[in-house]
Amino acid sequence: MEVFTTNSPEETEELGKRFASGLGKGSVVALTGELGAGKTQFTRGIAAGLGVKGYHVKSPSFTIVRVYGDGRLPLYHIDLYRLKGASEINGLGLEEYIYGDGVSVIEWAEKAGGPSGTAGGLLPEDAITIRFFYEGETKRRIEVG
User: Fold this and answer.
1) According to DSSP H, which parts of 21-121 are helical?
2) pTM for the complete prediction?
3) N vs C: which end of the chain shows fewer Cβ within 10 Å?
4) How many domains does the chain have?
5) Which residues of the chain have pLDDT under 70?
6) Which residue range is the domain that position 86 belongs to?
7) Range list of H helices, the chain
8) Mapping DSSP to helix (H, G, I), strand (E, B) and coil, where does residue 48 land?
């Protein structure tokens, strides 16, 4: 597990941008953490790192999925915040994105029910889990792995 500390939203975004360089076709990034902990800011950085043009990334809480297709790989930004769990998620067709040709970033990934093949599971076994923790007003601890 790697642990990072950021001291501002801009640093969280920059970490996401650097992290994007290691992502390839079919990568799935599962983000967990409290509301406002930096998940969307980190996703903005991933978008920038993938070369998404004019990356005005915002949380897709009400649309569930936003697709950004103009980077080196498509970015599928999925937000499960308002869904109650695997029972609501199954049948939405999210597998099309998660097992697609782009990079899937899933906020509130704990609601996806774990690895595919487990009860209600949606995430692939090799999904990269990133956890966000408050350490202060703008300081965040980010655990990868």
Assistant:
1) 39-49, 86-89, 95-98
2) 0.89
3) N
4) 1
5) 54-55, 60-62, 85-87, 113-121
6) 2-144
7) 9-20, 39-49, 86-89, 95-98
8) helix
